[in-house]
Amino acid sequence: MTAEARGGRSAQLKHTGLRPGWTTGACATAATTAAYTALLTGDFPDPVSITLPRGQTPAFALAVEELGPGQASAGVVKDAGDDPDVTHGALVRATVRRLPPGSGVVFRAGSGVGTVTLPGLPLDVGEPAVNPVPRRLMREHVERVAAEYGEPGDVEVTVSVDHGEEIARSTWNGRLGILGGLSILGTTGVVVPYSCSAWIDSIRRGVDVARAAGLEHVAGCTGSTSEKTVVAEHNLPDIALLDMGDFAGAVLKYVRRHPIPRLTICGGFAKLSKLAAGHLDLHSARSQVDKPFLADLAQQGGADEELASRIATANTGLEALRLCEAAGVRLGDLVAARARDEALAVLRGAPVEVDVICIDRAGTVVGRG
Length: 369
Hints:
Blueprint: H1 3-6, H2 8-15, E1 21-22, H3 24-41, E2 48-49, E3 59-60, E4 64-68, E5 71-77, E6 91-98, E7 105-109, E8 112-113, E9 115-116, H4 132-149, E10 155-161, H5 164-168, E11 178-179, E12 181-182, E13 190-191, H6 196-212, E14 217-221, H7 224-234, E15 241-243, H8 248-257, E16 262-268, H9 269-276, H10 291-300, H11 305-312, H12 317-327, H13 331-347, E17 353-359, E18 365-368
Parallel strand pairs: 7-10, 8-12, 14-15, 14-16, 16-17
Antiparallel strand pairs: 1-13, 2-3, 4-5, 5-6, 6-10, 9-11, 17-18
């Protein structure tokens, strides 16, 4: 077997031995597809298949089917695989009803789905907490069903989660100003199972395979969006991509002992701001974005006292970044540079060149170091 067949992000995921699951966004898309199909035909497809961003076509069994005057509802039970996700087993519902021509697809928060009340998130204040990628997936599937049956596809989609408000108490939603329930999340539709020991072991294997293949450049990525960014920036092969996730320390410590000439670290601005502040575990349960730290960095980059005060009390790291962008302060570059310094400190003089790329949620590069 070649090193390429044994390495890279896909092989790393397999090596964990953990079963993946489906995001709330994938479940909501499946429920929406089934409900809209039933609204147009009178019949619920069961199981209902959807197409995820990477081309997977999972099928979901329906747990709820309700057809009423002018609307239809369907529900899917979330299976998070082997991930200890608080939403595992939750019933995700979608209710679809027709709207006047030209309305498009409108999203509403039903029971158990939160509403955004503070700035700094990728959704406007007052919007239901259905994140951008799940919205896009649901729109795409509504359009497909509409095209199949010759309908315009102007509908209201109300997403709800049974007991979602109670489940949300175990998340960070309240602190982020998402009130009334859960967020509908997911950028790939797939829940990557989380296990510290299995994941760190898979990172080590990824480094070993890259070294065996003679690669001189690898990248530690926090997720699928950062992986795409690195490929676009450096044209790296799959075997060079390490799914770092939250384990920045695991990558750096292993590369310190088993050097590769160049390491790119790429991830979301908020996560890498944690590395910049000295955290090696970037998981939200074990480290938080330090807004006063970001305020100090911004002042080093020319921010005045008023701007620094606003950054220190920002709702999210993204809000702090946007405040600085509006003022012409390059906070992304400052964070990337400090994160690189922290990485080099962990490497302790190992012969590894390091660069850092910070991105926003859309994958736009917002900082380099």
